[in-house]
Amino acid sequence: MPNHLAFYIVDVFAEKKFAGNQLAVFRNAAGLAHEEMQHLAREINFSETTFILADAPRAGGFDVRIFTPREEVPFAGHPTLGTAHVIRHEILKGAADKVVLNLKVGAIPVTFSPDGYAWMKQIEPVFGQQHRAETLAPILGLAVADVDARFPIQEVSTGLPFFIVPLKTLAALKKARVDKARCFDLIKDTVAKGILVFCPETYEPQNDLSVRVFVDYYGVPEDPATGSGNGCLAGYLVKHRYFGKPSIDLKSEQGYEIGRPSLLLLHAEQNDAGIHIAVGGKSVIVARGELA
Q1: What is the pLDDT of residues 72-105, one digit of tens each?
Q2: 6-121+281-290 belongs to which CATH class?
C-alpha cells in the first residue's frame, strides 16, 4: 500500500461542520489494489469512502471509485458531491464551476452555484417492483396503518436502488426500527437492498420532507444523508404525483434521529423526455491527513 497518500474528511449535505454525512476522500489512489481500497473503507467505517485515482482528468472527468465498509458500489450521492467538492477546492483550487466524476454508473456532472450549494445530475430513474405494506411494515417495526396507502411502496433506482416507503407521520418515522433478519430475508430476492422511509411532517418548519435510510446490507445500519436515495425519492414523488404536479423543488431533512442533521435539496421534473433529477447540498472539509 502506498505511503503518504493524502486524504480528507468531509461533511456532506451539511450546513456546518459536524453535521451531514461523513466522507473520507483519498487522492492519487491509482496505486491501490481493490482489496486495499476495501480495507481502508472498512477501517474508516463511514457510510462511504472514495478514491480519486489521479489528479488529472481522463475523458473529460475524474475517475473515482466508491466503497462502503462492505463492498464497492457503482453510485452514491453524498460521495459524489463530497468528492467533487474536494476536486474543486483541493485539486482545481476553486477554478471550476463544474466537475465531472467518472463513476461505475457513468459520468456524473456536479455544478457549483454562488450560494455554496453543489448540484449533481442523476441518471434517469428506473421504477421496479411494488410491495405490500404488510411486507414492509413488520420489517420496519411499524403498523400497516403507519404506511400511507395512497402511494405505493416501490423499488426505485438512479444508479443505486432503494425501497421507497411513504409514511403518514413524523411519529411513525421516528419509531421505525429495522428487523435485520426479516430485512435480509426480503432483500435476498430483490434488486433494492436499502430502505428509505419518508413523511411530509418535519423537524424544521422550513423543510418539506423528513427522511430516514437504512442500509444494513452495505454495513451501515442508518445513513445520515443519502443523495442516491433522495434522488430515487425525487423521481418517485413526480412519477406518483405526491404533490399533485410533475415537478418539485423541495428541502429534504435527514439524520436527525442519529445526531447528524442533514439538508438535501431535491429538484425533479417529468416531461416527454423522461424524469430529470438533481440533488443539491453543501460540503465542508473537516480535516486533511496522510496515510502512514
Answers
A1: 999 999 999 999 999 999 999 998 999 999 999 9
A2: alpha beta
The helix/strand/coil state of 181 is: helix
Buried b (16+ CB within 10 A) or exposed e, 145-168: ebbbeebbbbbbbbbbbbbbbbbb
Q: Which position among 15, 35, 43, 48 bears the catalytic label?
A: 48
| Phi-psi group of 15: left, alpha or beta (phi > 0 → left; psi -120 to 50 → alpha; rest → beta) | alpha
- pTM, full prediction: 0.95
Cβ-in-10-Å burial (0-12, 13-18, 19+) of 72 comes to middle
Tens digit of each residue's pLDDT (9 = 90 or more) over 247-287: 999 999 999 999 999 999 999 999 999 999 999 999 999 99
Torsion angle in degrees (nearest 10) through CA of 147, 150, 155, 160: -80
Number of C-alpha atoms within 13 angstroms, CB side, residue 2?
A: 15
**Average pLDDT estimate for 229-236:** 98
| 126-280: CATH class | alpha beta
Fold: same for 6-121+281-290 and 126-280 = yes
Domain residue ranges in the chain: 6-121+281-290, 126-280
* 167 closest CA partner among 176, 158, 157: 176
Beta strands in the chain (DSSP E): 6-12, 21-26, 48-52, 62-67, 72-73, 98-103, 106-112, 118-122, 126-131, 153-157, 161-166, 194-199, 209-215, 220-223, 247-254, 262-271, 274-281, 283-290
Output the nine-digit C-alpha cell for 113: 452555484
48 is catalytic: yes
β-bridge mates for residue 211, sequence order: 198, 254
